[in-house]
Design goal:
GO terms for molecular function: arsenate reductase (glutaredoxin) activity. Pfam families: ArsC. Belongs to the ArsC family. There is one protein chain. The chain has 119 residues and is of the alpha+beta class. The protein has five helices and four strands; from the N terminus they run E-H-E-H-H-H-E-E-H. The protein has a four-stranded mixed sheet with strand order 2-1-3-4, sandwiched between helices. Helix 1 packs across helix 5 (110-118). It starts with a strand and ends with a helix.
């Protein structure tokens, strides 16, 4: 299990606490420092069953500067979204937990973290 975190994020700290309380074995990835490649983002999206616009933090300054809210949300723009996430990792929703069964969840709630633990 791996968890992508920003240590300054309260949701990330909460998720780590739940993982620790459950005695889970996991690896921490500080994704703002160890930026995921476009291929890694594609892989996580597949594991999440989501599209890049589903995990984009559209309120971030970089998102506003890029104008992502105006971008199409379809296959024609998918690679553009993925490139933006790789170039501006702060736009990636957090925390993302990759479960041992090959799936992943966005662990913003206690229920989502527990779901990852049960997989």
């Amino acid at each position: 299990m791996e968890i992508w975190i920003n240590p300054a994020c309260s949701k990330c700290r909460s998720a780590i606490g739940l993982l620790d309380d459950a005695g889970a074995e996991y690896t921490v990835r500080r994704y703002l420092e160890d930026v995921p490649s476009e291929d890694e983002i594609r892989d996580v999206l597949g594991r999440l069953g989501l599209e890049p616009w589903d995990i984009t933090r559209t309120q971030e300054a970089a998102a506003k500067d890029l104008g992502v809210r105006e971008w199409p949300r379809d296959d024609s723009a998918r690679e553009r979204w993925i490139a933006a996430l790789a170039a501006h990792p702060k736009l990636i929703q957090r925390p993302i937990i990759t479960a041992d069964d090959g799936t992943a969840v966005v662990g913003r709630t206690d229920e989502a973290v527990r779901d990852a633990l049960s997989r």
